[in-house]
């Protein structure tokens, strides 16, 4: 009889610690979402690009506060890990980056992100993807981290490439957006891939 394969990441490894805070390029930081970020989250759901590519639904500030509270619970239950990309000091939330769809036993998860208009084009998200990916692969111990986006979203493709996520292929008609079915690029990093240098700006 063969022995069972041990889990890649044992249950409880993620939730035993508080969700970390990371420095980010330009004096920004990656931190857990707070109730005070509800207005920024509600604003994000009204942004046409975020709606197009991420499909968050329309949220009121009260809805946003409830969602942020649920994200804290999802960390505790090891279902997802979501950070706000925030401005310097106690600055406002400018974007979201997270790791979701965890298969801790199998060692994989999916990365997701968006930015509000004020932070676009600054290189902030590529740096954030790099930092969160290091946490997921090196600190948490996942083996594989994937990232998908519509082929009609070249900005997301550039972020993936800058963060060292290799393009593995195109998934045909893989996700339904408001304007119909979109082909999706599949990018991935595996543990042991070389890390690009983080941004210093």
UniProtKB/TrEMBL annotation:
Residue stretches in coiled coil: none
The N-acetyltransferase domain covers which part of the protein? 28-193
GO: which molecular function terms? protein N-terminal-serine acetyltransferase activity; protein-N-terminal-alanine acetyltransferase activity
Keywords for this entry? Transferase
Which Gene3D superfamilies does the entry link to? Answer: 3.40.630.30
- What cellular-component terms does GO give this entry? cytoplasm
> PROSITE patterns attached here?
GNAT (PS51186)
Protein name per Swiss-Prot or TrEMBL: N-acetyltransferase
Please name the source species.
Streptomyces kasugaensis
Query: What lineage is on file?
Result: Bacteria, Bacillati, Actinomycetota, Actinomycetes, Kitasatosporales
């Amino acid at each position: 009889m063969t022995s069972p394969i041990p889990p890649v990441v044992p249950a409880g490894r993620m939730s035993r610690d508080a969700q970390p805070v990371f420095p980010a390029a330009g004096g920004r930081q990656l931190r857990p979402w707070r109730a005070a970020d509800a207005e920024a989250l509600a604003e994000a759901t009204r942004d046409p690009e975020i709606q197009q590519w991420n499909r968050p639904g329309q949220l009121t500030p009260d809805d946003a506060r409830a969602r942020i509270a649920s994200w804290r619970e999802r960390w505790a239950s090891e279902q997802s890990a979501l950070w706000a990309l925030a401005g310097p000091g106690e600055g406002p939330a400018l974007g979201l980056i997270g790791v979701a769809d965890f298969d801790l036993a199998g060692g994989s998860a999916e990365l997701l992100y968006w930015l509000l208009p004020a932070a676009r084009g600054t290189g902030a998200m590529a740096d954030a993807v790099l930092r969160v990916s290091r946490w997921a692969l090196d600190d948490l111990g996942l083996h594989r981290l994937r990232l998908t986006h519509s082929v009609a979203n070249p900005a997301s493709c550039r972020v993936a490439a800058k963060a060292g996520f290799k393009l593995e292929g195109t998934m045909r008609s893989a996700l339904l957006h408001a304007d119909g079915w979109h082909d999706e690029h599949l990018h991935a990093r595996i543990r042991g891939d070389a890390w690009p240098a983080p941004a210093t700006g």
